[in-house]
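I would like you to sit down with the pair of lines that follows and say whether tokens and residues agree.
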Amino acid sequence: MSGSQIPAVRSWMKANYQSAATATPVTGRSLKVWDGPQSEDTSFDQLSISAASRTVEPFTLRGGFSAAGSLREMATVDLVLTAFGAGGEEPEVVLERAYQWLALIEATTDADPTLGGLVDVAWLSESTDATDMQPQGWVVEITAR
């Protein structure tokens, strides 16, 4: 079995999500994509390619046609998107912007669901959001996978 595709997938996500966010800013804010923990800087919104988990199972084509020891890797990568309120923005405005960023990330994934040929198919399967008031203003965090 070859090594895990997760490192290459994370690299694809970082490069392509950052490129899409740079090309399509949302309501005047920029988005910085991190492979790992986010920055403490709240002057821009942030997307963190967070935890990854994988499952490996034996793989056999119908009729038994496959190489001996063939395995299929299935991975889940958590994304944490954080939008920061700026200049007294209301929480609804920050929440809307966070979901606009999430829609951009989803559209980028849908435009190339093989992530450059690294996987059979990728998609965002679920997301949850939380809104909180911090000293710098409203913060919305969306966790997606």
User: Anything to note?
Assistant: The CA atoms of residues 88 and 137 lie 7 Å apart. The mean pLDDT is 89. The two ends are 25 Å apart (CA to CA). Strands lie at 31-34, 45-58, 71-84, 127-134, 137-144.
